[in-house]
Structure formats: structure tokens, C-alpha cells
Specification:
Number of strands: 14
Distance between the termini: 48 Å
Radius of gyration: 19 Å
Strand content: 35-45%
Helix content: 10-25%
Structural class: mainly beta
Shape: globular
Number of domains: 1
CATH class: Mainly Beta
CATH topology: Umud Fragment, subunit A
Order of helices and strands: HEEEEEEEEEEEEEE
CATH superfamily: Umud Fragment, subunit A
CATH architecture: Ribbon
Length: about 190
């Protein structure tokens, strides 16, 4: 049977896993095709919570930041409540790509994204329906970012949210790799760029 030391060791392992999940990394399931082909529905991805700094576990409060969010990062975040949604989304995790940073002007026209009037090269972006949704030239406020899904014609993102820009404090981490997929067993250990 188990002795006191075995029970203590088991409890220490449980505590270590909870702390690691809260502070270092966390697995997330991709529920939709909005990031296709980079991420696919059913992918289980690993997000690094230490990519940008050290956050107090289970809060939005950053103790210190050592790297800013960069354009092109695929980030995990929570949105403030959407007044058009019956669900409380404050703690629901979402995944999108960072496109524009604070102070930049962003515009989406046809299948092209412009940052400060310069076309952004986006090999990851796909328009399966021809580029249906534009976004007028708008400056990103300080402390905010503009996010898009890679599957541009099938992504609810900054172009459609009632508040448009996401507060950087809501970024929980950066997607590092696909661990495995529930829908495609060949998709495993894929770095996300």
C-alpha cells in the first residue's frame, strides 16, 4: 500500500503541475477553422505563458514584462464580454494572429493588409472566398493590438468585434507548437510560426 511519503510525493507532484499550468505553459484545444491552415480544428496546442513576461497566475496582472507582443505572433487571449453574445466570454480562451501594434495604422482592403500604408507580406493568410471583409484605415490605440485569423474569410476577429482592438493585458501567452490533433493523427509536434 501507500505510505505517508508516497502520499506526500504524489501531492507535491499535483501541486507542481498546477503551478506549472498556471505560470509556465497550458494546453488549449482549437475549436474552429479560423486559424486554418496554421492551426486546424481539433488541434491541441501548447501555449507558453512566459513568452512576454511573468504574470500572476490566474489573473491578468503582469509582474514584469521582458518582451513585447510582436506582429505575427499567434497569441492566446481572452476577450471582454461581447454585448451581442449571450455567453460570458471573459475567461474563454481565443487564438488569433497579431497584425498591428499600438500606434500603427491598419487597413484591410480586398485580400491585402496595410500597416502605415505599406502592404504586409502574409504567407500564412488564406482567403478561401476571395477576401470578403474589408476594414477601414484606423489607428491602433496605445496599449491595444489588432488581431486576425489566418482563415480571413471565416474568422471573427478585430474586424467584427464591437470593441475592435484587444487590450494587451488580455494576452495570456503565445502558441508554441501543436502537440497533437484530435482530427488528424499526422499533425503532432509542429512548431507554430
Amino acid at each position: 500500500m501507500f505510505g505517508k511519503e508516497d502520499i506526500r510525493d504524489f501531492l507535491l507532484i499535483i501541486v507542481a503541475v498546477i503551478i506549472a499550468r498556471g505560470m509556465v505553459f497550458e494546453p488549449y484545444r482549437i475549436p474552429s477553422g479560423s486559424m486554418y491552415p496554421t492551426l486546424q480544428e481539433g488541434d491541441i496546442v501548447v501555449g507558453s505563458k512566459l513568452s512576454y513576461g511573468f504574470r500572476i497566475p490566474f489573473t491578468f496582472n503582469m509582474l514584469f514584462q521582458y518582451r513585447p507582443v510582436k506582429r505575427g505572433d499567434v497569441v492566446i487571449f481572452t476577450r471582454p464580454d461581447d454585448p451581442l453574445s449571450p455567453l460570458n466570454e471573459n475567461w474563454t480562451n481565443f487564438v488569433k494572429r497579431v497584425i498591428a501594434l499600438p500606434g500603427e495604422e491598419v487597413e484591410v482592403r480586398n485580400t491585402k493588409v496595410f500597416i502605415n500604408d505599406v502592404e504586409l507580406k502574409e504567407p500564412y493568410a488564406k482567403y478561401f472566398k476571395g477576401g470578403l471583409y474589408d476594414f477601414p484605415k484606423t489607428r491602433v490605440p496605445e496599449g491595444k493590438i489588432f488581431l486576425l485569423g489566418d482563415n480571413r474569410d471565416d474568422s471573427t476577429d478585430s474586424r467584427f468585434w464591437p470593441y475592435t482592438f484587444l487590450d494587451i493585458s488580455r494576452v495570456r501567452g503565445k502558441v508554441v507548437f501543436v502537440l497533437f490533433s484530435l482530427s488528424d493523427f499526422d499533425r503532432r509536434f509542429i512548431l507554430v510560426k
